Amino acid sequence: MTAHESPSSTQPSAAVPGQGGCPFRNAANIYEFGPAKAALQHDAAWQAGFFAESVRKDGVIKQLPVLYGHGPSQREMRRDTARFFTPTAVDQWTPRIDELVQGLIESARRPAGVLVDELSLKLAGAVVGDVVGVNMTNPKTLARIILAADQRADSEPLLIRSQRNRAKELLSFARLFPAWLLDINPLYKASKAHLAAGGEVRHLVDQLVAKDYSVIEALTEILTYASAGVLTTREFIALSFWKIWEDQALRARFVTSSLKERETILRELLRLNPVVSMLYRRIDADAELDGCPVAKGELIRIDVEAANRDPKIWPTHRHEVDLSRELPSGVKPEGLAFGAGPHQCPGGPLAIREAAVLLHELFSHSGLEVLSGPVWQRNEGIKGYEVRQLRIRIS
Ligand code: HEM
Question: Mean pLDDT, to the nearest integer, of 170-199?
Answer without folding.
Answer: 87
